[in-house]
TrEMBL record:
Belongs to the PNP/MTAP phosphorylase family. NCBIfam families: PNPH, PNPH-PUNA-XAPA, PRK08202.1. SUPFAM superfamilies: Purine and uridine phosphorylases. Pathway: Purine metabolism; purine nucleoside salvage. The purine nucleoside phosphorylases catalyze the phosphorolytic breakdown of the N-glycosidic bond in the beta-(deoxy)ribonucleoside molecules, with the formation of the corresponding free purine bases and pentose-1-phosphate. Catalyzes the phosphorolytic breakdown of the N-glycosidic bond in the beta-(deoxy)ribonucleoside molecules, with the formation of the corresponding free purine bases and pentose-1-phosphate. Preferentially acts on 6-oxopurine nucleosides including inosine and guanosine. GO terms for molecular function: purine-nucleoside phosphorylase activity. Its EC number is 2.4.2.1. The keyword Glycosyltransferase applies. This is Purine nucleoside phosphorylase. GO terms for biological process: purine ribonucleoside salvage. It comes from Cyprinus carpio carpio.
Length: 314
């Protein structure tokens, strides 16, 4: 499987998938939720479900992880129509970065306006505790630093502009609403806010790497989410993200602690209900997204005036 960052899909590929889904369900959600590892239970809460296993959806990437559900679940969460990805595609599984983000462009063509992302992450911030839920305020795209950005390659203007802005990646109004909702639900004692850093994985970080990430200003580290957010912002979706802090990373050479998958899964199980409650209450509060905001966004105007920007002479 190639891991080249060159986009290997055409607009027509995404369109074929979206049109097939639109033809096979009457549900027209405006909200999509990408469920992180162990957090897929959220999709089970949907009412009036219509479930599409990934392997039944034309051109949709296939799940490689045995025992993981790979399906799109359409339905109603707390009375609001939405679609959930139960099982995401991770870069560390060997997927091309364009494949990791394929569903997000399909969501755009389905008419999705708001993308909610959840993940499990290691806590880098010394104030964070296991089981905390972190509102993602911003991200560090470490694979992007190394050339693995899903927007590399020819730009498809029907999705968005060549040079999209990322300084407003995570919706601040939505984050305010999440803080209020957490307070209403009594979840505010374990609600945090911070910067999520994505590493490719699959190995957990060394002590030196964790120290570097702390110096860089990251509060949590994980192996997902950022490529999907970049693609969602490119096509003008509003994004909201939550990280469940499943473990504290090790930053002390005298420590005998070791990051491990069992601990990650254990914390996820412990907090999954709170996270589901928070997301479903938030979803119920989402109002329509202004149409003008959902257009491909960024510096479109400038690109028309300076066509050389489009050619990459920058
Ligand atoms: N590091 C990277 N990814 C993770 C971690 C971690 O400590 N915990 C959960 N996902």
């Amino acid at each position: 499987m190639s891991t080249s960052s060159e986009c290997s899909y055409s607009y027509e590929d995404y369109k074929e998938t979206a049109d097939w889904l639109l033809a096979n369900t009457d549900i027209r959600p405006k909200v999509a939720i990408i469920c992180g590892s162990g957090l897929g239970g959220l999709a089970d809460l949907l009412d009036n479900k219509k479930v599409f296993p990934y392997h039944k959806i034309p051109r949709f990437p296939q799940s490689t992880v045995q025992g993981h559900k790979g399906q799109l679940v359409f339905g109603e969460l707390n009375g609001k129509q939405c679609v959930c990805m139960q099982g995401r595609f991770h870069f560390y599984e060997g997927y091309n970065i364009a494949t990791v983000t394929y569903p997000v462009r399909v969501f755009f063509l389905l008419g999705i306006e708001t993308l909610i992302v959840t993940n499990a992450a290691g806590g880098l911030n010394s104030k964070f505790k296991m089981g905390d839920i972190m509102l993602i305020k911003d991200h560090i795209n470490m694979p992007g630093f190394a050339g693995q950005n899903p927007l590399c390659g020819r730009n498809e203007e029907r999705f968005g502009v060549r040079f999209p802005c990322m300084s407003d990646a995570y919706d601040r109004d939505f984050a305010r609403m999440a803080r209020e909702t957490a307070q209403e639900l009594g979840c505010d004692s374990f609600l945090q806010e911070g910067v999520y850093c994505m590493l490719a994985g699959p190995c957990y970080e060394t002590i030196a790497e964790c120290r570097v990430l702390q110096i860089l200003g990251a509060d949590a580290v994980g192996m997902s989410t950022v490529p999907e957010v970049v693609v969602a912002r490119h096509c003008g979706m509003r994004v909201f993200g939550l990280s469940l802090i499943t473990n504290k990373v090790v930053t002390d050479y005298n420590s005998t602690e070791k990051a491990n998958h069992e601990e990650v899964l254990g914390t996820t199980r412990m907090r999954t209900e709170d996270l589901q409650k928070l997301v479903s209450n938030l979803v119920a509060k989402i109002k329509g997204h202004r149409k003008s905001e959902r257009k491909p966004r960024g510096h479109a105007g400038i690109n028309h005036l300076y066509p050389f920007l489009e050619q990459g002479i920058h």
